[in-house]
Design a protein that fits this description.
17 strands; alpha/beta; Rossmann fold; elongated; six-stranded parallel beta sheet; 12 helices; single chain; 356 residues; Aminopeptidase; five-stranded antiparallel beta sheet
Length: 356
């Protein structure tokens, strides 16, 4: 699967700024979006249209957004198409920012409503339509996100950014004495190291976050407990074989372990596994959900995320899967994730193949 990094610039920025990020994502295509509008409803639509098109070509999209570009992105309705995001000095509470500018310009809400648009001495036009929009469209961002914030940011307070990070489960990194605009050599070096570190942790870490789920390989204790409590003899045997594989290959634990599939509230809804990683770089993925969580898109979400995780490892050349011949739902999941039937049949039924 080809990976894309999409850069969304801030005010007075440009798509050309994306050039800087190519060295930080050497295995990905990096492009910038040169949007032409500057309101959350218009720019959000521009961003969504672009991402919808890109989503048909790339299996994994990482978003890098700067300042108001992050705000526009969060208003674009693209959550389900973005795998993870990096926000640099993001505007996360536009209403508070607008009210602060109104106070600075000594403009009351009554005046703003009556005049609709008011020009200010500091070069920003205050718009009642804009304020009304952000009040009516509360940001609900669900993409796994890392935030870089400067302690001297004069547009967003630390309390505001911390509140947003906590509410959305985002990782927050603060650069002491950094401003809203990261541009000096020292600031850009800090930014670069932040992304490199985050990328390294993402690729080496075994916790996968999606819009609604988190996936992680079970520990020995978890697997032993599952084996002891499992009533289905066939599943008990399968879990035991997985644990044996983990103990025989401790340096490849995640390739033999049972991966837990949990909702963000901690409820376990199913599991998956890779059944080992062969010397030829081929792994077979298997998955299953509890009955009450089927037909809700969870399986597709989990399998797609697991495949993206697997292909971030350069030694992985191909993924395979096998389903029961009559299990149309499972076959649909594989098709949605890009798997293609390879013409072979295993013990359970037809086999499918997915390549990077």
């Amino acid at each position: 699967m080809k990976e894309l990094v999409l850069y969304i610039h801030g005010m007075n920025g440009s798509a050309a700024e994306s050039e800087h990020y190519r060295k930080l994502f050497p295995g990905s295509i990096v492009i910038g979006l040169d949007y032409q509008t500057f309101t959350p409803w218009e720019t959000g639509e521009e961003i969504r249209d672009a991402v919808v098109k890109l989503n048909t070509e790339y299996g994994c999209i990482t978003l890098v957004a700067n300042s108001i570009g992050a705000f526009f992105s969060m208003n674009a309705g693209i959550d389900e198409m973005i795998n993870r995001a990096y926000f640099i000095s993001p505007i996360v509470d536009m209403e508070r920012l607008i009210l602060g500018m109104m106070e600075r310009a000594n403009v009351t809400e009554e005046e703003q409503r009556a005049k609709s648009v008011i020009k200010t001495s500091f070069g920003v036009d205050l718009s009642w339509q804009y304020l009304s929009y952000v009040r009516e469209h509360i940001v609900n961002w669900t993409v796994p996100t890392a935030i870089l914030y400067g302690s001297q940011d004069d547009l967003t307070s630390f309390e505001t950014i911390l509140s947003f990070a906590n509410a959305h489960g985002a990782d927050l990194t603060v650069m002491e004495n950094g401003g809203h605009w990261f541009h000096t050599d020292e600031q850009m070096l800090f930014l670069d190291e932040w992304i490199r570190k985050s990328e390294a942790e993402c690729k080496s870490g075994n916790m996968i976050h999606t819009k609604r789920l988190r996936l992680y390989p079970a520990s020995r204790e978890q697997m032993e407990a599952m084996i002891a409590s499992e009533q289905d003899e066939e599943l008990k045997k399968a879990y035991s074989e997985m644990l044996d594989g983990c103990l025989d290959h401790p340096d490849q634990w995640e390739w033999y372990a049972l991966w837990m599939i949990e909702k963000k509230d901690g409820i376990c809804i199913g599991d998956l596994c890779f059944k080992g990683l062969g010397e030829n770089g081929v792994a077979e993925i298997g998955y299953g959900l509890k009955e009450e969580y089927r037909e809700q898109g969870y399986a597709t979400e989990a399998v797609k995320a697991a495949c993206n995780w697997a292909f971030r490892h350069p030694e992985v050349k191909m993924l395979e899967a096998e389903t029961d011949a009559g299990n149309a739902a499972s076959q649909r999941v594989l098709e949605k994730c890009g798997f293609l039937p390879n013409g072979a049949f295993g013990e359970e039924g037809p086999r499918f193949t997915l390549k990077p």
